[in-house]
Amino acid sequence: MVKQARHGWVLMLAIALFIGHSSFAQTDSLAIPSSRLGTTVSLSAVTVRAIAPERFLAGQKLQRIDSTTLLQFRFGSLTDLLTLNTPLAFKNYGPGQLATVSFRGTSANHTAVLWNGININQPNLGQTDFSTLPVAGFDKLAVQYGSSASAVGSDAVGGSILLGSTPGWQSGIRATLGLQLASFQNNQTQLGLRYGATLGDSWKLSGKTFAYRNQFNNAYPYTERQHYFLEPSTTAQRGFIQDLYFLHKSGRQLSINTWVTDNDLIITPQDTIARERTRTQSARLLATYEANRMTFRVGWIRDVLDYAKGNFNTPSHTETERLISRAEREFQLLSGTNRQLNLRVGGEWSHYRTRTDGYGGQLIQEDRGDLYALLRYQTTRWLVSANIRQAFVTRFNPPITPSVGAEYQLVQRDRFKLTAKGSVSRNYRVPTLNERYWIDLGNPNLLPESGLNFEGGLAANTPLSDRINLTTELTGYHNRVDNWTYWNPTNNYHVENLQLVVARGIEFTTNLTYVQNNWRAGLRLGYALTRSSQERAYDAYSQDVIGKQLVYVPLHTGTLNTYVQHGQTRLSVQMQANSRRYITFDNTQFFKGTTLTNVLLEHTARWHSVPVRIQGQVNNVFDALLIGVKRNALPGRNWAINLIINFPSL
Fold first, then answer.
1. Element at 69 (helix H, strand E)
2. What pLDDT, in 10s, does the model give residues 560-609?
3. C-alpha closest to that of 243 among 227, 254, 229
């Protein structure tokens, strides 16, 4: 009966995708639900472009990173930005080395990273190296907290990182040159072009071309810090991004997005025996066509990973390709002055091809599909979403993942607005290709990791005066993940569905801003309590880890960002503090808590009518001892000088 019911709703969804509707106006309220900003709901009609999964995740916490913050971290990776602006915990192996995230007490495999709506996690490993994601390559960045499997799909167990590109329809050509000179003989170069033009009487063109080169030589003047060894390494990063948008006067739009990366990491390069080289190359191509309420998308992603130790001439080689296609349609079921009801239905199909030495060199192929329906209802006080998704994977059986969320404005006054929110969602993760196909150790019969996430909170907005504004948000969550896969050392590291992990916690953020004439100031404070532990004994040896905090997940995390600006000069202080991080499952060994403090001074001047932005930054101002995953010290106090030249429109 369950299987028949599943097939029934899948068939209905597929039919609904292609059934027409009398209305052609795709309308929606604010892209960010007002409860997340603390402002009055506006139901004015706007055009919703491309994939916006957060629109259908009412009741969940969403943090959008503003353009000023993106500019400040222009020469950084996503690791740097998210470390100082979110409660996410990173496992950092060293400067320019692997950096993976722990989102709300989950593992690196439990975070979906979306680029223009497509999950770009490396499918063999099931994760993304955040050190390879440059902040300057994206126009939009948002952090979606909590399970969003019903809207995003696999991997979105702890949360999602949303990276996006946006067109700018201003005519002309504008060029930007960015240069960085930093400590330890590190340097970066960036070159970007933005352009727009009218093509005949009916079309407009918008484009962005961006290239970057990062060289991290990490020539440290010391070999150890407080008896912790500094691991030498070099990293060469190269990347190219090309975005093209074509807009017809009728509203139809065609977009083409390309992103090519090359990351070459060498650890201990002077030691010809122990040295290690990891080179990852990715090519991503995406084409999207939008007409009225229909969206069609096709994509191709190729990931190459070469690893060698000692002798670099014979690396272990992994090559994976994905062909992606997606179709979506949005229906406006109800439209009025004070209420709207929208339904988005869609389907996605992907074909995977991978060949790696670890699979015996054989070609592995599989197909993956998704069918989903996303419902959104909004009034002047209510925002409600109800979603459902069913995934299909070759030789695998993922569960149905529904979710329900709601936001309600408890108080709507000129000087005070208070919104309550909550959501319940089921989540899942398809095991990685390594977990399923690795010779001898992999397990093709693994069960999907399946969990249940509860979340609730309050958001308030209080204008204290005409110049001062205060926003505050408090969120609590409980995320239970069963069948968590584990490379079991007691069984010769075979992969098994063994663990039951429960992550629960509280997150608090407050933001105070001040504006008067040419003066601006702000203070953003964040705190997170993250309790994540194994709650089921799967053998005699696991008794000692029951109820213990997961490794590398700090119980307490705090961030403090403050700035003062006068005219074109701005001084910012960025801080992040972590409590101790355990490095053994029984919690007997740990790294002490740390506090990282960065200072950034920036000024924009004009040189022959050309805006020039100069940034001087000091990282780790107080020379705190930070320890990487391999128990090696990270560098102490260091500096960087950044120069950004914005050439006028041609």
1. helix 67-72
2. 999 999 999 999 999 999 999 999 999 999 999 999 999 999 999 988 88
3. 254
Residue 92 CA neighbour count, 13 Å, CB half: 21
Among the listed residues 167, 161, 175, the one whose alpha carbon sits nearest the alpha carbon of residue 77: 161
Q: How far is CA 374 from CA 158, 454, 519, in A?
A: 20, 19, 44
pLDDT > 90 in the chain, percent: 81
136 three-class SS: helix
* Distance set, CA 177 to CA 231, 360, 395, 459, 574 (Å): 32, 46, 49, 40, 25
Give kind and range of the element (H or E) at residue 68: helix 67-72
Is residue 81 scored above 60 in pLDDT?
Answer: yes
- 3-class DSSP assignment, residue 496: strand
State the Cα–Cα distance between residues 408 and 40, nearest whole angstrom: 11
Q: 203: which DSSP letter?
A: E
The answer to whether 498 touches 532, Cβ cutoff 8 Å, is no
Contact 333, 343 (CB under 8 A): yes
Name the helix (H) or strand (E) containing 11: helix 2-17
CA R_g for the chain: 25
Distance CA 534, CA 481 (A): 10
CA–CA distance, 420 with 578 (Å, rounded to integer):
29
Distance CA 272, CA 222 (A): 21
The b-or-e profile of 390-413 (16+ CB within 10 A means b, else e) is bbebeebebbbbbbbbbbbbeeee
Helix/strand/coil percentages in the chain, nearest 5: 10, 55, 30
CB 166, CB 139: distance < 8 Å:
yes
List Cα–Cα distances, 312 to 233, 271, 273, in angstroms. Answer: 15, 12, 10
